Amino acid sequence: xxxxxxxxxMLKQIRMGGFKxxxxxxxxxxxxxxxxxxxxxxxxxxxxxxxxxWLHEVLSRHAILPSPTKETRFFDIHFERGFEWYNxxxxxxxGDRLVGEVAPTYFASAQARERIAETxxxxxxxxxxxxxxxxxxxxxxxxRAYGMIxxxxxxxxxxxxxxxxxxxxxxxxxxxxxxxxxxxxxxxxYDDLRDEPQSYLDSVTDFIGIPRFELGPSQVGRVFTSxxxxxxxxYYRTRSATAMAEWLKLRQLDTVVAAVKKSPLLRLVLGxxxxxxxxxxxxxxxxxxxxxxxxxxxxxxxxxxxxxxKLPSLQTSGPARGDRRRFSR
Length: 329
Hints:
- By secondary structure, this protein is α/β, with parallel strands linked by helices.
- The protein has one domain (33-229, 276-314): P-loop containing nucleotide triphosphate hydrolases (Rossmann fold, 3-Layer(aba) Sandwich).
- 44% of the residues lie in helices and 8% in strands.
- Strands 2-1-3-4 form a four-stranded parallel beta sheet, sandwiched between helices. Strands 5-6 form a two-stranded antiparallel sheet.
- Helix 4 (110-119) packs parallel to helix 8 (169-180) and helix 8 (169-180) runs parallel beside helix 14 (281-302).
- The longest helix is centred in the last third of the chain and has 22 residues, at 281-302.
- The protein is globular, with a radius of gyration of 20 Å.
């Protein structure tokens, strides 16, 4: 049997409860998940720096999400670890709440898209789109602040592929639509989340199948940003701490990482350096021109005007206007 057909057959058997006369196997050959435990029915796939942390916080009491780590990175880089490893990020009992994952790195990952479609063909995904230049700057600041990359912004957009690849809004959205179908993809806009959080949340919960709920006063307007981030005080110390955190998470010691994040120890490795500077006008223009084709393709898919995302001179004109809508066939 050809390799591709064998893989497809195996994934189908996993979904249907495993192989007759044997324990179900993960793609890596290890024992897979307990098939009595449900996989996520929805994914918030970003891309990164579009309000996904805020959504994770507000949805966490109304759906079963990975905890304490928000992003498992299972479907894009840790798939070979098997479903037993993945399921360990979720509570063993879900009650009547839906299971989901907030996973912004999945948006631009072809592997994540294909694996989700093969293992959870009825999954619903929510995309969130933001001014592409603002978003890439915010993502760079996050990566630089946490010691993930050592470069200047100009160097990073060349050497770190995620920065620019995750800005391929039209191309990636079309791929998700093609793979899952229009009824399983909801495209939303960060400006709506920021300006009308309750209305935005209602559209998301209606789509993924969670009963509507009211945001608390502390949740309204609290969207996490990179504005207060700085360069690390010591890049190598911060990079080592981030690497250690990833090492612990891979070994399912997420609670240790979560405890450190809430302790004074965090200040020893995060922040304390110089503030980030603004982009030059010339580089800003070049980036808007680079992303323009993707933004225009997104305009066609959503039937919405995103003129404010095409030129820096229009940024101050306010959020992109138009009706928020779901895709129809």
